[in-house]
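Reviewer comment 2.1 asked that we show a complete input and output for one of the modelled complexes. We chose the magnesium ion case, as it is the one discussed in the main text.
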Amino acid sequence: MPSLSFLKSIGKNFIFLYKSNFKFRLGFTLILILFILGFTVSPFSPTSTRTWYAVPRDRPPSPEYLLGTSSMGRDVFWELCASIGKSLTIALITAMIASHIGLFIGLISGIRGGLLDRFLMFVSDTFIIVPGFLLLIVVISIIKSWITIPLLGAIISIVSWPWPARQVRSMVLSLRERTFVYTAKLSGMRTSKVLLFEIMPYVLGWHLVNFTNTILFSIGTESGLAIFGLSILGDNTLGVMLYWALNYYALFRGIWWWITAPIVTLVLIFISFYLISIGLSEHLHRIIG
Amino acid sequence: MEPVLKAVNLKGGYLLGSLYASASQQGSYVDAVSDVSLELFRNEIFGIAGESGCGKSTLIKMLYGYLEPPLVLKDGLVYLYTKEGKEISITSLSKERLKREVFWRHISYIPQSSMNVLNPTMRVRDHFAEMLKLHANMSKEEAYKEAGKYVEYMGLPIDVLAAFPHQLSGGMRQRVVISLALLMRPDLILADEPTSALDVINQQAVLTMLRDSQESFKNTIVIVSHDMGVHGVITRRVAIMYAGRIVEIGKTEEIFEDPLHPYTQALIKALPRLGDKAQRKGLSGHPPDLKNPPLGCRFRPRCPSYGPQCREETPTLIEVKPGRYVECWLYST
Amino acid sequence: MLHASKKSLLEYLATRTIMYFATIFSGITLTYLLVKAMPVDAVENIIFGLTQTVAGVYDPQSINKLREDLYEIFGLTGKSPLEDYLIFIRRVFTFNFGPSFISFPTPAFELVLRRLPWTIGLLSVSTAITWITGNLLGTIAGYFRTRKFTKVLESIAISLYPVPYYIMALILMLLFAFLIPIFPLGGGISVIPESLNLELILNIIWHSLLPALSLILPGALGWSFLSSRTLTLEVLSEDYTRYAEFRGLPGKHVLRRYVLRNILVPQVTVLALSLGGIFSGALLTEVIFAYPGVGSLAYRAAFAGDINTLMAVLILSMVAVSTAIYLLDLLYPLVDPRIRYR
Ligand SMILES: Nc1ncnc2c1ncn2[C@@H]1O[C@H](COP(=O)(O)OP(=O)(O)OP(=O)(O)O)[C@@H](O)[C@H]1O
Ligand code: SF4
Ligand SMILES: [Mg+2]
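Response of the prediction step:
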């Protein structure tokens, strides 16, 4: 159970990080804006972003249609906002599932060691060697017609947990060697307690980095799958926007605003989560070493 | 006696600026070499002794002239006299010119902890060959041939040449590094703790190698060691350092038989002697923090015989008899 | 003196080879388990979708044959689970993935084989270029770490690194479609191939430039650059590099023989690992540029629900990736003398 002092220390670290680390500040601000667009602004859409021909087609950006309209008769700005929200939702679901599975497996593997560790690492190595994207293509092709937003997030987790697992495990292994864990053990604490009190605070920081990286991975994977036509094509995600823009040859027909909008947004998302991730790890390296 | 190196009033240390230090150390300065003067002669083995952290390594890095941050030279001059009769001012040449014209031809350096100084991806023979190609303009074949002859001359087994560094034992690696330093027949070799990472047998082998090569090349070797035993075995003259200063210089035998400075006396007294079972008493207390050295004589906090003068004024190194220098108020009246 | 003995070499080869087959085997098992975990009516669903979209093309007999194939692949023959598994394994090791749907009844495996040279050509060349230029740039940036151009390169790398290949491909397409329309934007060739001649080869290269660039750019300025720069900084602080400078060796020599040579060792591992990721990335590049490789095939297969072809692509690329890693493993001791076929 997170105690009050624990939450306080998170808050303190966050404020310190925000003030001292430019990369983190930049990334965090960008993400905040995207979250606001995706979750707070998008419900106010005046027209539907999922029906066809809600607005006139192929209009370039103008005061009336900020980012123009698509060949499917949707307002690109509002569709973009809705897509940001849905893509982030998928990514958050993946991150919630995969990074926690990774945390759990990494902890068990690192602490217990022995045969169990070997087995778990062999499985995660397999996942690292198997082309995960293709695996997802096969799986989603089979269940294409049932796919929903939470399900998509969950399916992407299948291939996203091994990296965090490896990371947490190596973290635990290096922490085990540190003297404070020995001292705690010598003082007669049970192994599980040693873990909880001595290792967890350090691992949790890296868990946050893994969480951020998994978000990044999930958004990228969803858009890749969508280009393959393997996302929720009737809904709004950044990948689905790309899919339709590509399918309608937006580029060759000169409807550049349609395809540029999701591309620029995706690049912004990638860069800002990456900035947060490296800002976090720089901070962790400094306070833990 | 012909001089080979002269250092005049060397001052330098570690400047802990923003780049290299945590916030608490911001802008502090470690006064590791404080006003050291020294003269080395051709054809001798000279020792530098003193306990850990007294600035021995820093001093010889400054003599060598290749300073990497955070080490800075604050003041002083170093002159090198070559066998061709040239005077080289090490402290005033640029790093590039030193690299091109001075290092390895006239002066070479064996760093402390030299276990990892050979390129792990290069065979030993290529380490010799690249120096020969660079400084003697040899072709690759010539260089390999020369390396073979040289290694044999130095008494190393010929198959070290084909080995990678990690395949050699610690003692063998150290002997390779020493051979490398002697390769271009420099006037002066600075060896920092060449034996301290080795076991007794290898120490012996390395010291013998250094002495034999000195006898045949007639060069000058400076051996830095915290171990007075090493100095007793191999050096002809020795300088005793304490807290960034040289406190005594003299013939090794004289220093051992009749130490003058109170610190040297304590060092010699603490040495184990044959047939003496009594526990030797070391010095009490710690050497001073060089970020914040005491005023006056730096040895005063530990000195058994200090007087009122010692607290206020720093003593200077004076020649008490020919070739014997001491820095202590007891001897400068 | 220690030298590599014949025995340790054999041992090394044996363990590597066992590992190689073990990873392929576990990859296949993993795929089997995943596919088996899919909802039970998946097969009927696929067949239903198929008859809906291209009705009439299939006669009932071949549909039945297909149904059998699918039941075997999905491990639903009604026999014991072990038997199901063995049937699946046998199919995989005989490369028998059943007929493709998209060009029925050509075997799926054959379809993939036909496309393979295109993909391998594109990937091997662009990976090699990426790795070499990335390492050179990264090493130079590490060596001259205080120069201005290093800072510029670093900012570019940090912004390129997190962007996936296919987004990079789209950006390039955007740039070259509007700003500088010089490259062909799609396809593999634009002449009619009669015989293999210079014109044809040049045409093929011309068409693969943009896809290749979209793979090289984020790699050479992204992961490859960043990792080699980090490694260079590490190697520069090693005793042996500093002692090389102390010995008066000129900077260029130190850079080549000391720094580059020593970062090569871990960079080979990075190369091996990147191969796994790059395979999936290149699939999308092919789709975006309509490059006639395995990726475009997989795209069509995914569109038509052609599970057999997708399976063939998956298993083949699994084998390709593990083989690449295996070969690099065997080459490793040549690069790093410290590892003597341990
Ligand atoms: N890179 C550095 N940065 C800051 N301080 C340093 C650095 N290197 C050495 N020092 C400090 O300078 C002083 C002299 O160090 P030096 O290495 O010259 O001592 P030494 O006599 O060679 O000791 P040892 O016998 O341990 O090698 C010490 O107080 C040491 O802590
Ligand atoms: S100067 Fe004074 S304090 Fe220093 S060593 Fe001599 S007697 Fe001792
Ligand atoms: Mg030292």
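The longest helix of chain C spans residues 198-236. We note this here for comparison with the apo prediction described in Section 3.2.
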